[in-house]
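Predict the 3D structure for this chain.
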Amino acid sequence: MTKDERLTEFICSLEPDQDPILEQIEEEARAERVPIIRKETGAFLKTWVAAVRPKAILEVGTAVGYSALTMASAAGPDCQITTIESYEKRIIAARENFKRAGRKEQVRLLEGDAGAILPTLPKEAFDLIFMDAAKGQYLTWLPAVLERLRPGGVLISDNVLQEGDILQSRFAVERRDRTIHSRMRGYLSRLKRMEGLETAIVPIGDGVTVSVKKCKGSWIDRDRHLWT
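Done. Predicted structure below.
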């Protein structure tokens, strides 16, 4: 076990027990190899939810609903969570999990491809957005995602370091992973270069970014050259 792995294990050992239903959902997801947020990432996410105190959260990538329920546990009862998922089997599981956790009314699940659904959502309607879906699509979805984030809102993106492969050159990774590798590097560069965002890349879990939308109005016009 490496030093970093020991440190992560120690950090996770400090986490208090979570709600029994959420604990059960986590165990079921891990047993079925469903990709869900790591324990340390969950704690990081809950802290941001508690700090932002959002009235409206958007999640791109529901899976079985674990991360949405994690955020709900830190949010106020008047916070509405909208989450998007396209995989039918996971949609069924997520709806059941929201019901089990007593969050059926608080969490709205939209079925379909995020690329098609995002443009239909109201602009500047969300205080916090969590990206945790197809990593190769982050860059494609970013303009629509940022348009849905209110000024001062926070965008959190998960799994941005790709188990450390992001450090490698494009030709050092497996051929099948090169497109995602290039797109994720482009996504990180875009987040860091945009004038209208303040972004930190945090090496927790498999890497997360935290971006704050700094200003209102013409911020996307000033950065329009970055989209070409």
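The two ends are 44 Å apart (CA to CA).
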